C-alpha cells in the first residue's frame, strides 16, 4: 500500500477541496488561490479567489491528476463581484450543479448555482443567487432516497453571525458582556451556545432552497449543545457523508484549527460530537472533504507547506481515512 499523504497538484495553489465520484472517476472541486496583492485583514480580504478549476484522477495513490481548466470565472456571474470561495458539485438527472459562495457588489456573501452537462464543465451560472442564501462553504449531499441537501455557513469573515445574531440569547437573559458585534461568538462567555452551520433541502430543479434553513446542532456526550468557548465547536467548512446508515457531519473549528466530526441519525441532526479528525496543519485555515473511492475512504484537505506558510496560497493534500469497529473514525496523522 503506497504511503499517503500526497500533494495532488503542486503546479498551482488550490484549497477547500470538495471531492466527488462521477462516472467512476474522482473529481475534486477546489477554490483557487493566487497572489492578488490584497492586504491581510481579519475578514479574509486577502483571499481574493476569482475562478474555479476542477481536477480529476482514477488512482488516488499514484495516478496522474488532470486539471480540466477553468470551469467558472467571477466575471461570468452577473450578481458576484469577488471572492469566489468554497464550492461543491452534485449530479441530478444527468446534469451537474455547482453551488458556490461569492460576495455581491454590497460585500455580502451569497450562494449561487451554475449548471453543466458534464462534471468537468464548463458551468453556466444563474443570473441571481439562491433566494434567502447567505454565508459561505456549501456542501451538497445526496441521500439514499435521492433528496439533496445543502450544508453551509462560516463565522467571522464568512458572515454567518450576521444572520444568527445573539439577540435571542439576550432575550433569554444570557449576559454576553460588552455590546455584541460581529465577533461576539468568538469572545462570548464560554457557556453561551455556539453558533451552528445551516442545512436546507434543495428544490427539485436544484436552483433554490425548498424550505427554510435548519440549524445543525452539535451535542456533547451529555446531550447538550457545544458552547462558544469549546475549541471543538463549529466555525466553517461543513461536510456531510454517510457510513453504515449513519450521518457524519464534519467541520473546521476555525481559530482553534481542528477538523472535527459528529454523528447523527438523519440529515438534519442533531449530531453528537465524536472527536478530532485532524490536528492543525501549517497555515491557519483547515478545510476538507471525505469520500469513498474504489472501496477506500479518503480525507482531502490543504496546507501551506509548499508556499512556505503563506496562508492565502494553499496546496491540496489527500490521506487515507479509516473507521473503527464502532463506527468512529481514526484520527488522521498529517505527515
From TrEMBL:
The record marks 137 as: Important for catalytic activity, responsible for pKa modulation of the active site Glu and correct orientation of both the proton donor and substrate. GO terms for biological process: xylan catabolic process. InterPro entries: Glyco_hydro_43 (IPR006710), Glyco_hydro_beta-prop_sf (IPR023296), Glycosyl_Hydrlase_43_Enz (IPR052176). Pfam families: Glyco_hydro_43 (PF04616). CDD domains: GH43_CoXyl43_like (cd18619). GO terms for molecular function: hydrolase activity, hydrolyzing O-glycosyl compounds. Keywords: Carbohydrate metabolism, Glycosidase, Hydrolase, Polysaccharide degradation, Xylan degradation. The keyword Hydrolase applies. SUPFAM superfamilies: Arabinanase/levansucrase/invertase. Belongs to the glycosyl hydrolase 43 family. This is Glycosyl hydrolases family 43. It comes from Prevotella aff. ruminicola Tc2-24. The lineage of its organism: Bacteria, Pseudomonadati, Bacteroidota, Bacteroidia, Bacteroidales.
Amino acid at each position: 500500500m503506497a504511503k499517503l499523504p500526497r500533494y495532488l497538484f503542486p503546479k498551482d495553489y488550490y484549497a477547500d477541496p470538495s471531492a466527488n465520484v462521477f462516472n467512476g472517476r474522482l473529481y475534486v472541486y477546489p477554490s483557487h488561490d493566487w497572489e492578488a496583492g490584497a492586504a491581510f485583514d481579519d475578514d479574509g480580504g486577502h483571499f481574493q479567489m476569482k475562478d474555479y478549476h476542477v481536477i480529476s484522477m482514477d488512482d488516488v495513490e499514484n495516478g496522474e491528476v488532470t486539471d480540466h481548466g477553468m470551469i467558472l470565472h467571477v466575471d461570468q456571474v452577473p450578481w458576484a463581484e469577488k471572492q469566489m470561495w468554497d464550492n461543491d458539485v452534485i449530479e441530478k438527472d444527468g446534469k451537474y450543479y455547482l453551488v458556490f459562495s461569492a460576495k455581491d457588489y454590497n460585500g455580502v456573501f451569497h450562494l449561487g448555482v451554475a449548471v453543466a452537462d458534464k462534471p468537468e464543465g464548463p458551468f453556466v451560472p444563474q443570473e441571481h443567487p439562491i433566494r434567502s442564501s447567505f454565508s459561505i462553504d456549501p456542501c451538497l449531499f445526496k441521500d439514499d432516497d435521492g433528496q439533496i441537501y445543502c450544508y453551509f455557513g462560516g463565522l467571522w469573515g464568512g458572515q454567518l453571525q450576521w444572520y444568527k445574531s445573539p439577540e435571542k440569547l439576550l432575550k433569554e437573559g444570557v449576559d454576553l458582556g460588552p455590546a455584541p458585534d460581529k465577533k461576539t461568538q468568538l469572545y462570548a462567555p464560554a457557556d453561551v451556545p455556539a453558533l451552528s452551520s445551516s442545512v436546507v433541502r434543495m428544490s427539485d430543479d436544484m436552483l433554490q432552497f425548498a424550505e427554510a434553513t435548519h440549524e445543525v446542532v452539535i451535542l456533547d456526550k451529555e446531550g447538550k449543545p457545544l458552547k462558544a468557548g469549546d475549541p471543538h465547536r463549529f466555525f466553517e467548512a461543513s461536510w456531510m457523508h454517510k457510513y453504515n446508515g449513519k450521518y457524519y457531519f464534519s467541520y473546521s473549528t476555525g481559530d482553534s484549527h481542528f477538523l472535527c466530526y459528529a454523528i447523527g441519525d438523519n440529515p438534519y441532526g442533531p449530531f453528537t460530537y465524536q472527536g478530532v479528525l485532524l490536528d492543525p496543519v501549517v497555515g491557519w485555515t483547515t478545510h476538507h472533504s471525505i469520500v469513498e473511492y474504489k472501496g477506500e475512504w479518503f480525507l482531502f484537505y490543504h496546507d501551506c507547506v509548499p508556499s512556505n506558510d503563506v496562508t492565502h496560497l494553499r496546496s491540496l493534500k489527500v490521506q487515507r481515512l479509516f473507521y473503527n469497529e464502532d463506527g468512529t473514525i481514526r484520527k488522521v496523522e498529517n505527515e
